[in-house]
Write a structure and sequence with these properties.
Distance between the termini: 62 Å
Number of domains: 1
CATH topology: Porin
CATH class: Mainly Beta
Number of helices: 4
């Protein structure tokens, strides 16, 4: 099979993130009663008032989480930008600052319409949104191989590259939720949300193992993994079989699926200031139709190793060379198109909150774990919430996760008729971006702002 397929698939994966990606409500809103969107984190949370969120007016939600940045891969040498693989950058300078696994999650919520109201003995929600998830895990060993090769000084003659993964899915979600109290147990509420999913586009590269054995006469590569590209995105190709763009006039449905959110909240009668909660979100699947897939399970002779980034080459040429060499490491054989079932990115939220001064102030702890390809993400957050007036609430937080630590804050104004909010869960000291909005260092951002219309008598 042409190695250009892998290059094209990588480009399609990266380009797909511009179609939108899913990001849940701010985690710091988990303990704020005035935030009408917190049912996104736990379906057992009922709203204080009826609401309607309109497209555009309800704002946006942007989420980025990465343990590496542009500065890890791009260096300025002799007045020009070069990749770390360039001969102008030493192996120590490039590899010394790389994480063992370079991980990225990109999320962007695109709400279309949502509303909530009291009826049928509880609180009900309805929402339509476009969702996408982009996840990347690239082990640093692949860059060590491309940078050093067979290094007599270190005696390296074998490289093992494990769990190389790129994954994205894009789908439309229609969700119906209901929460209510349990009369048999005072202080206990439960909720569920049923989701109907329409798949737009899915693609992935999942390489469980790449082993490179180097000898004096030849280099042998053994690889195990797979790649997939759904039929929902109609790509355009050049004469060599490379992807050149997306035919937006020919977009079609890629699959269908279902999901469910389940949640519970309990305030013991003996401890009225304590509230504990649990939610499991996005339990479900999408069945993708006629997926174009390839597999790798064998060995071959590797001939693509060369020098990347010689003096005078531009950054675009260096990136093209990098994609070429990586694609030649991942040689796969095409399979007949067939339906594939993919599980959703399931999230577990566990929270505990203790309130004082008649709930004017509360202290909360939230554990959030996301399961799915290409890796599991875990986070712990401590939140202090303030409710000085019925129309104003705020929260500050600190978090520790598998991708570092950060602080954040949220302000929400909730007078009669509106819920106005602005917040960012994750702020780090090294939060800097290039002119192209690419993080320069490992960073985490989850920004949410907007206005939601409320109506009816508050609870």
């Amino acid at each position: 099979m042409k190695t250009s397929y892998i290059k094209s698939l990588v480009v399609a994966l990266i380009a797909s993130c511009t179609m939108g990606a899913s990001a849940q409500a701010l985690h710091s809103s988990y303990f704020l009663d005035g935030m009408v969107e917190r049912h996104e984190l736990n379906p057992a949370f009922g709203g204080e008032a009826n609401f309607i969120a309109l497209p555009g007016l309800s704002g946006f939600n942007l989420g980025v989480s990465t343990n590496f940045g542009l500065s890890n891969f791009v260096f300025q040498k002799n007045g020009e930008l070069v990749l770390g693989l360039s001969s102008q950058v030493s192996a120590t300078e490039f590899l010394g600052a790389l994480p063992q696994n370079n991980q990225l999650q990109l999320e962007l919520d695109l709400p279309i319409l949502s509303f909530g109201f009291r009826a049928f003995g509880g609180f009900n929600t309805f929402s339509i949104k476009e969702r996408t998830y982009l996840g990347v895990n690239v082990p640093s060993s692949i860059f060590a191989f491309l940078k050093q090769g067979a290094d007599p000084a270190t005696g390296i003659i074998r490289y093992d590259i494990d769990n190389l993964g790129l994954y994205t899915d894009n789908y439309l979600e229609l969700a119906l939720g209901h929460s209510r109290k349990l009369p048999a147990l005072e202080g206990f509420s439960y909720g569920a949300k049923l989701k109907f999913l329409v798949g737009a586009f899915m693609s992935s590269i999942e390489m469980q193992h790449i082993g490179i054995e180097m000898s004096q006469n030849r280099w042998m590569v053994e690889s195990q993994g797979s790649a997939a590209l759904s039929s929902g995105l109609n790509l355009t190709y050049d004469a060599d079989g490379n992807i050149t763009g997306v035919n937006t006039s020919a977009l079609r449905l890629g699959g269908y699926g279902m999901g469910v959110d389940l949640g519970a909240v309990y305030t013991p009668a003996a401890l009225p200031n304590l509230t504990v909660s649990l939610a499991v979100n996005d339990i479900g699947f999408i069945s993708w139709s006629q997926v174009n897939s390839t597999t790798a399970d064998g060995s071959f002779e590797y001939t693509g190793f060369g020098t990347i980034g010689t003096e005078g080459e531009g950054l675009n040429e260096q990136l093209e060379e990098l994609l070429t060499e990586v694609s030649e490491l991942i040689q796969m054989e095409p399979q007949a198109p067939q339906d594939q079932m993919r599980m959703l990115q399931t999230t577990l939220n566990v929270g505990a909150e203790y309130a004082i001064l008649d709930r004017k102030i509360s202290f909360g702890i939230l554990s959030s774990t996301r399961f799915g390809a290409p890796y599991t993400y875990a986070e712990g957050m401590a939140v202090v919430s303030f409710r000085p007036a019925s129309w104003f609430q705020a929260a500050i937080n600190g978090s520790v996760s598998t991708q570092g630590s950060a602080i954040g804050a949220l302000l929400t104004f909730c007078p009669n008729g509106a819920n106005i909010f602005f917040g960012c869960d994750y702020v780090t000291p090294n939060m800097k971006f290039s002119a192209e909005a690419i993080p320069l260092y490992g960073t985490r951002v989850n920004l949410r702002t907007g206005i939601i219309i409320t109506f009816g008598k508050k609870k």
